[in-house]
Amino acid sequence: MILYFSATGNSRWVAEQIAEVTHDEIFNLSVCCLKRGVVPESVKNAVVLGVVFPVHGWYAPHVVANFLSKLKLSACEYRYAVCTCGDDVGKGMNRLSGHFPLNAAWSVTMPNTYIPMFNLDTAELCHQKISNALCAVRSIGRDVLLRRNVWQVHEGSAAWLKTYIVNPLFARFIICSTGFHVDEGCISCGICSKSCPVENIKMVDGNPVWGEDCIHCMACVHACSQKVVQYRKTTQRKGRYRLADYL
């Protein structure tokens, strides 16, 4: 059984690739558990459970961490987590394991999507990261089948500082809806609203309106076909990421 949480598609793809090896059923955590408020019985009774999610500021998105910390698994004998990241994950997996004990953990490097702070990776680098990731997730799938206790996480430099000092500051002062807006050219298609994994965007009179539950995943920015959804002035002259362009 694999639960995944994904905004721009990287973590969904990783979950799908692992499932191809393990032949597990996968569930979209955002749809099944967060939006509907229901945990499927097959998840509660899973003997082996994997969780795949993106790293946000060197930790799991708070909606994922909160959900996992409350998840009751009566029959689970082996639980693992796989996080996707543009580079490193700090001590994010260690911190998560304090709320959701893990038998194994991996990080998988995928194209960077947090364009308020960074530029998009070049097309060449995106292709290379995805090619490397495919090899990595197949290896992860084999380890899961054997229930190996593996901890292959790229923490990077200043790992503790990033996760335990920078992340809380990031969550307190940066992660909010303030700054999201639409430039001229919006066609009222609603794809930004549909792409939001936490249902934080509503269409009002043909215009997107952001609520108070933003997690800064940038799904709405990347999904906009007209490239008019922006975050402050930091995304206006930057590209947009679509995983399908590199598969």
UniProtKB/TrEMBL annotation:
<dbReference type="Pfam" id="PF13187">
    <property type="entry name" value="Fer4_9"/>
</dbReference>
<feature type="domain" description="4Fe-4S ferredoxin-type">
    <location>
        <begin position="178"/>
        <end position="206"/>
    </location>
</feature>
<dbReference type="GO" id="GO:0051536">
    <property type="term" value="F:iron-sulfur cluster binding"/>
</dbReference>
<dbReference type="InterPro" id="IPR017896">
    <property type="entry name" value="4Fe4S_Fe-S-bd"/>
</dbReference>
<protein>
    <recommendedName>
        <fullName>4Fe-4S ferredoxin-type domain-containing protein</fullName>
    </recommendedName>
</protein>
<dbReference type="InterPro" id="IPR017900">
    <property type="entry name" value="4Fe4S_Fe_S_CS"/>
</dbReference>
<feature type="domain" description="4Fe-4S ferredoxin-type">
    <location>
        <begin position="212"/>
        <end position="234"/>
    </location>
</feature>
<dbReference type="InterPro" id="IPR029039">
    <property type="entry name" value="Flavoprotein-like_sf"/>
</dbReference>
<dbReference type="InterPro" id="IPR047964">
    <property type="entry name" value="EFR1-like"/>
</dbReference>
<keyword id="KW-0479">Metal-binding</keyword>
<keyword id="KW-0411">Iron-sulfur</keyword>
<dbReference type="GO" id="GO:0046872">
    <property type="term" value="F:metal ion binding"/>
</dbReference>
<keyword id="KW-0408">Iron</keyword>
